Protein: LITAF domain containing
Organism: Chinchilla lanigera
Amino acid sequence: ASTSMPIQAMCPYCGNYIVTVTSRVPGLLTWLLCASLFFCGCFLGCCFLPFCIKTLMDVKHSCPVCGHELFHHRRLPQ
Ligand SMILES: [Zn+2]
């Protein structure tokens, strides 16, 4: 998956055609930015700023019917 927007898909777990529910989770890019801000001298909490920036977050798509996670959209390849 290459989108952070909800998409239509067939859930492989419950078999329903659903529109995925997206939720944002901290990903590798978030941690990298956090670390680089930390090493630039931002010791007093602003190194956690990337966690507040939605566009930097990974996106988890899950099924609204059964709640299973269908896929995970990452900002950086892992
Ligand atoms: Zn499902």
Notes: The first strand starts at residue 8 and ends at 10. Residues 11, 13-14, 16, 63, 65-66, 68 surround zinc ion (CB under 6 Å). The mean pLDDT is 81.
